[in-house]
Amino acid sequence: MTIVDQSDASPYVPGRSVGGPSLPQRRRLVTEVPGPRSRELLERKSGAVARGVGITLPVFTDVAGGGVLVDVDGNSFIDFGTGIAVTGVGNAAPRVVEAVQDQVARFTHTCFMITGYDSYVEVAEALNRLTPGDHDKRSALFNTGAEAVENAVKIARSYTGRQAVIAFDHAYHGRTNLTMALTAKAMPYKSGFGPFAPEIYRAPLSYPYRDGLSGPDAAREAIAMIEKQVGASSVAAIMIEPIQGEGGFIVPAPGFLTALSAWAAENGVVFIADEVQTGFARTGRFFASEHEGLVPDLIVTAKGIAGGLPLSAVTGRAEIMDAPHVGGLGGTYGGNPLACAAALAAIESYENDGLLERAAAIETVMKSRLLELQAGDPRIGDVRGRGAMIAMELVDPLTGEPDPALTGRIAKHCHENGVILLTCGTFGNVIRFLPPLAIDDELLHEGLDVLAQALEAA
């Protein structure tokens, strides 16, 4: 680890600083990583928190904002993770903070199913307006992405009267029982937790780097499997991420998603886009479906929707969304007033602060640097993604096989040197970049400089 001594850095006192843009936007390491206070908290965690709850980077956060996160030892990290694509507007974004402070002073909870409140309706109206398509829509709000995915399946089954759901290779849809069944990766998400929900079937995904197929050809393979092994008349829904998240930031070849959507429409199958990770300006559009002109029947959102507060939603065609009986959808905390206030503030930022354009600018910076690295390093097999959702896949240059060990070493080097980044992929060999849209170019370049050093060191 390199201690980054920045004598011009504003003094930072753990516990006293505030987040948002007032936080100095710089990488600054004043201790080893993890530092002494984080190590103390790690010890306490081991005695208090279930072992199954892991921590990727062994530090504890004190304050965060803009493009940085500061730990309890005063180390300032460049944030290329945003809590897994959650704080797109930046951590402690002023609009979000102000909205939540105002709401928490008014009331914290009533349960929308008991007495309503206007912010729930306003969030639903915003989602109906922003999601692809100009058809009549309805929305329902929940807490987590997995919860919204489960409810999307409930809604599709209620509407079609069918049971089967098609998921895809490399998919990730959550950690609950049904969403584990939809998720493809065994470790750490599924191993030892079965049996899983029935009537889930898996089809091949378009993976251009690995399969070399055009989008229409890959779709034909997937559709043939569905028709032969399940039967169109049994399928309630197709569930797919427009860009794979945990599965490796896989961008399907052009035409794959639209071919599946067309087949679904022809066969009375509900097409569900899981935009939990790709939604809310992450890919340079409000929703990744827009890149291919895709209009899903249902769209599932979460993560970036509320600037860090727990909120998710299912939005879709009115006739499908209204299929379940009254009382069939809901939950005690679903669409809680604090999260709704945060969502309205975050949506205002996405619409008015140039964040869609900022995501596109981040893509230009990151892809340019990563492709430059790839040109001189055959271990970088692929660079892909859209907007501020970019990845590089690391391989053995002789065989093209995934290299998870190299990926782990690079991530560890970056963590120790002040850059938070995440790995992903079915084979654990993909590094994903999810910077906040509030990050500045200087931090982007510095974080990528550390990555280049990590590649050299590895």
UniProtKB/TrEMBL annotation:
Q: Which reaction does it catalyse?
A: (S)-3-amino-2-methylpropanoate + 2-oxoglutarate = 2-methyl-3-oxopropanoate + L-glutamate; 4-aminobutanoate + 2-oxoglutarate = succinate semialdehyde + L-glutamate
SUPFAM superfamilies reported in the protein's UniProt record: PLP-dependent transferases
Instruction: Tell me the pathway.
Output: Amino-acid degradation; 4-aminobutanoate degradation
* Essential cofactor(s): pyridoxal 5'-phosphate
Can you tell which superkingdom this protein's organism belongs to? Bacteria
Under which EC number(s) is this enzyme classified?
2.6.1.19, 2.6.1.22
List the residue ranges of the region (Disordered): 1-24
Record-linked Pfam families: Aminotran_3
Question: Which keywords has UniProt assigned to this entry?
Answer: Aminotransferase, Pyridoxal phosphate, Transferase
Q: What class of enzyme is it?
A: transferase
Reply yes or no: does the keyword Transferase apply. Answer: yes
Stored PANTHER family: AMINOTRANSFERASE CLASS III, LEUCINE_METHIONINE RACEMASE
Q: Which family does it belong to?
A: Belongs to the class-III pyridoxal-phosphate-dependent aminotransferase family.
What this protein is called in its record is (S)-3-amino-2-methylpropionate transaminase
Species this chain originates from: Frondihabitans peucedani
Q: What is the lineage of its organism?
A: Bacteria, Bacillati, Actinomycetota, Actinomycetes, Micrococcales
